[in-house]
From TrEMBL, chains A, B:
Membrane-crossing residue ranges in chain numbering: none
Full protein name: Pyridoxal-dependent decarboxylase
One Pfam family in the UniProt entry: Pyridoxal_deC
Gene source species: Mesorhizobium opportunistum
Family: Belongs to the group II decarboxylase family.
Cofactor(s) named in the record: pyridoxal 5'-phosphate
Lineage of producing organism: Bacteria, Pseudomonadati, Pseudomonadota, Alphaproteobacteria, Hyphomicrobiales
């Protein structure tokens, strides 16, 4: 039986071997299939295993190769969902964060890490034109949206002490599934989420929003919040923030902006994001369009007092002895988590390593790639685009073939990976560019692969 | 301006430098102070910095030294809160997880990672005597407890569609702050959390629990769930699970067990955890008493159908095309998060590397260390213990001195770190052992440091 302690020499050797695996993997990326050739039988056979009494020692590193072979690789030819590309300096940041193993509950528990997280949150706020917003990092958009709506509820119709009272939340019918999920978790009930119709560009119709609020007030219902989306998950539409902010102000509602997919693009194209700073709260995902390894969500807000009212339920065992406001600062009084890992270190390293300009350019290239794809589709008579390209998501279909069958073949061919969505009840193909490794050739491969797959269907 | 792409050679060089920092840090651990000598002025000066337009490149690695100097180190002499020791093989697992950058939403998005997570969740369940439970990894106890109570609510008084109805949750007055926080978030209202008195061992009094439920029913209130705690945060008390399970069964209530601190000790001392498998849901934290780097919480449960009812709000854009049950599996339909990092890889590597026996022994040593401390306290006339030592937390005080002043001095001396808690309104010192690096000498240093600090107060 092995002790948990290992010698520095043994650890050093294993660490070098692990790093060698990482380096080989990075070097192999471009040669990999865009999606692994695997089945549930493969992964069950490889990875169903008991936890044995005796340690297997260093041989466990040998699993890495088969894990990588049955994993989605971060190649420049993966265009499914909204999946960032895992910038390697960020990955080294994750190593160092795990080595330091800070519990970033509060300054008292993690002085440097807390100061660094507060700094990088400020960078993100400033990068998207929301300087002065505060907030914290979290697991992702689902958590950020949940926290935002919890704050909205507590600001408008306090529920923490006595329980939820009936209230209503508004979002467009293109809203991300994490919003109905948050509304349900918070006890508001999904039937109290009004899904507002969108215009032909998939943006929320402000007239319909206003009408819904008015109708609710006339029925005696209590509106509390509007969720605007910057970068809807299907087509990347950006809701009209200034008009929504006007409604929110007039109606005294909380305005949350879900920018999990698109928000970081305000760094590159701020003109598309006018009105973002009117938000009361804003979700961002650095593991999407800031290319960081998972996980790295962020909730920014303009109301730290309401954050504390919403999330502060502290016990004496975490009572902080300091009078200094920085030293008394606790993330757990302004967010859901208590134990929190040092997510900020990868941002600290990766963002400074490359500089803001490099990130701005990478986002611009993703936007260009979407335009290249749209142009290629326009030139092909068998293909049609089904939504405007507002950011970097492109939705399209083959006019005459079974698109679901095409998608299966494209994925099986392994050169590019797309995912699917539904527009006006129709199954559509969807490519999304949030990947610093993608080249224009990778983009052009999308249409040629679709056409090749469609031709295979004829055979 | 730098591009985000870096050459394999440059990346290799930087990665070696980062690993060198990690190795030096590990080798330096035992020589470090148990808590850094730092102030808010230090960390503000060091870590307030703008995100510059141009990249700083490799020089950002030079920050690591000052970050480590202003961070809580994972030495064997840190006994504050419940902080695991960051097992290094687990940290290497975090590197490889960040390199692979899987988004473990579902098998479709991450085949190997999904199979591995399902395997390690099974290991944890089996290790604590709950074979057959399913579940998922999450950020920590706060998230696991929130998910558990969301499931309880949905199982007993469905709220997702129409909103919360008045209902009541029961827990002991020693319950962790994440439970009132979850009750508030779920819209139940903290006034509907009944804090049941404890006995002289800080265990929930089942007679009082039953009386409270009966009184609520007579008043027309609707009980839905009981939260038992295995390892209360202050003293490590284990609530009487078989008796609580009897009440839950008789009253048809959900029984959640918060084992974030203590649950994993069932691997080493199962006799203390009789009745754990009666739980409907169980929170565990592998980043606490399984020594893993943050974050690695887990919610186990016996009701995957209720998990799906509670958390499934899926959109077409994540619609899974497979009919195979493994390939159609999606974590986001059974938990809160959508984007999810590959938390399971560190468990896969670290747990197999060392083997189950090594973990069992490490937990036993922690239990022994608590007994050693209790014995040392008993031998010292100026010290008194204030709670039984049920697991590995020891609460005590100096009989005649200002214990808050002693604690400040102990921390400033830097040899050991303790935290504080409140017992019967009294400020107490608290040491908790969940650290594979701790030696008996480290344990003995606690009392000598307390006495030395107390003597300094006389000067």
């Amino acid at each position: 039986m092995r002790d948990l302690e290992i010698s520095n020499q043994e650890l050093s050797d294993i660490a070098e071997e692990a790093l060698g695996l990482a380096k080989s993997y990075w070097a192999s990326l471009e040669g990999r299939r865009a999606y692994p050739s695997t089945t549930s039988e493969n992964t069950t056979e490889l990875f169903s295993r008991p936890w044995l009494e005796n340690g297997r020692g260093r041989e466990i590193l040998q699993d890495f190769k088969s894990i990588a072979e049955h994993a989605r690789p971060g190649t420049g030819r993966f265009f499914g969902y909204v999946v960032g590309s895992g910038e390697p300096i960020g990955a080294l940041g994750e190593l160092l964060a795990a080595v330091l193993n800070q519990n970033v509950t509060s300054w008292r528990s993690a002085p440097a890490a807390t100061s660094i997280e507060r700094a990088v949150v400020g960078w993100l706020a400033e990068a998207v034109g929301c300087a002065g917003f505060t907030g914290s990092l979290c697991g992702g958009g689902s958590m950020a949206n949940l926290m935002a709506l919890a704050m909205a509820r507590e600001a408008k119709l306090p529920a923490n002490e006595t329980g939820v009272q009936p209230c209503v939340v508004y979002a467009s019918e293109q809203v991300h599934m994490s919003i109905p999920k948050a509304v349900a978790l918070l006890g508001i009930g999904r039937k109290n989420l009004r899904l507002i119709p969108v215009d032909d560009k998939f943006k929320m119709r402000t007239d319909a929003l206003q009408a819904a609020i008015t109708a609710d007030r006339e029925a005696g219902n209590v509106p509390i919040a509007i969720v605007a989306t910057v970068g809807t998950i299907v087509s990347g539409a950006i809701d009209p923030l200034p008009e929504i902010a006007d409604v929110a102000r007039r109606e005294a509602l909380w305005m949350h902006v879900d920018g999990a997919y698109g928000g970081m693009a305000a760094l590159a194209v701020p003109e598309k994001f006018q009105g973002l700073s009117f938000a009361d709260s804003l979700s961002l995902d650095a593991h999407k369009w800031l290319y960081q390894p998972l996980d790295c969500g962020c909730l920014l807000n303009r109301h730290p007092d309401i954050a504390r009212t919403t999330f502060s339920h502290s016990d004496d065992y975490v009572r902080i002895l300091s009078e200094d406001p920085t030293e008394a600062f606790a993330f757990f009084e302004e967010s859901i988590e208590l134990s929190r890992r040092f997510r900020a270190l990868k941002l600290w390293m990766s963002l400074q390593f490359h500089g803001r300009g490099a990130y701005r350019e990478a986002i611009r290239r993703d936007l260009d790639h979407a335009q290249i794809l749209a142009q290629t589709i326009a030139l092909h008579p068998e293909l049609e685009r089904l939504a405007p390209v507002s950011l970097s998501a492109v939705c399209f279909r083959h006019r005459s073939k079974d698109n679901e069958a095409i998608l299966r073949r494209v994925i099986a061919r392994g050169r590019v990976y797309l995912s699917n969505a539904t527009i006006n009840g129709q199954f559509v193909l969807r490519a999304c560019f949030v990947n610093h490794r993608t080249t224009p050739d990778d983009v052009r491969a999308i249409v040629s692969e679709i056409i090749a797959a469609a031709e295979e269907l004829n055979c």
